[in-house]
Amino acid sequence: MNISRRFFMKTSAVAVGGAVTAKAGTAKAESRNRAPADPFGCLVDLTQCVGCRKCEQACNEVNHLPEPKVAFDDTRVLDCKRRPDQNAFTVINRYYPGKKDEQNRLVPTYAKIQCMHCQDPACVSACIVGALTKQENGAVIYDKSKCIGCRYCMVACPFGIPAYEYDQPFTPEVRKCTYCFERISEEGGKPGCASVCPVEAITFGKRDTVLALAKGKIKKDPGRYINKVYGEEEVGGTSWMYISEHPFEKLGFLSLPKKPLPTLPETIQHTIFKFLWAPVTLFAALAGGMWVFNRKQMTGEDISEERGADNE
Q: According to its UniProt record, where is this protein mainly located (predicted)?
């Protein structure tokens, strides 16, 4: 029996579509919000940051990371836009959004980048083995003993934060900011970066408290800040939040939806993999389609034979 590619693809599409439709309602109901009730949060006031890189150094020391190629007191590194990687969990970048001083020189604004520790993180939803989890204190932490190296978390993260140790062929890990989980789990503990900032540009506390602080600053001095707290609503809200005098788009921040991102991947995952229901349905539908196709072919062949006999 010859089965055309068009027939196979059509049958497959119908089968998958039926499975998705049948399970979509259940999958949506099963998608859950992982946002903890009373997590910690960090507020970064970009109008105060001076780009000293003390936060980078503290992060390096707390997490026992390799020494950087460029010393922490060398600010020339700020001339290049950097991203966090497996050896640096947070970095400072310098931007010139357009403001000038009295000498008509462009005034820089510095922005700290690290894992945002989303309230409902897409990376946790994407991890098929539970190597990433959202903790009640707000941290998104990683368990290397569970990781299988699929790197789905890297694809799922809207901020492009998780990094992979490609230079470690035998024991690679996914690496990112830990929110200093052990430190903040202790009474009075703070993330390393928040504890050393010389100008107090980083405020650590309960998320609701620092969010109220951010809004209070904006209300008190509307000429200094734009009316937005970045991270309050982006992708369902994040543990790290920012206030600024310039539009965030000019400072390297992404424009993201308010809806938590795990909703879509969880719907697809639950639809396809829930108790292997959909794969079984798919194969059953394909088998049924092939049987129907075979019957039609056989019936057509019988009719052709009968017509041939009549002509004789």
A: other
Q: Is 147 annotated as a binding residue?
A: yes
Q: Within the chain, where are the H helices? A: 5-30, 54-62, 122-126, 152-156, 181-184, 192-196, 207-220, 263-273, 277-311
pLDDT tens-digit map of 77-113:
998 999 999 999 999 999 999 999 999 999 999 999 9
Structure tokens at 6: 């068009």
Q: Is 49 annotated as a binding residue?
A: yes
Provide the pLDDT confidence category of residue 26 given band limits of 50, 70 and 90: very low
118 known ligand binder: yes
Tell me if 236 is assigned to some domain: yes
The rounded distance, in Å, linking the Cα atoms of 134 and 139 is: 6
pTM for this entry: 0.77
CATH code for position 213: 3.30.70.20
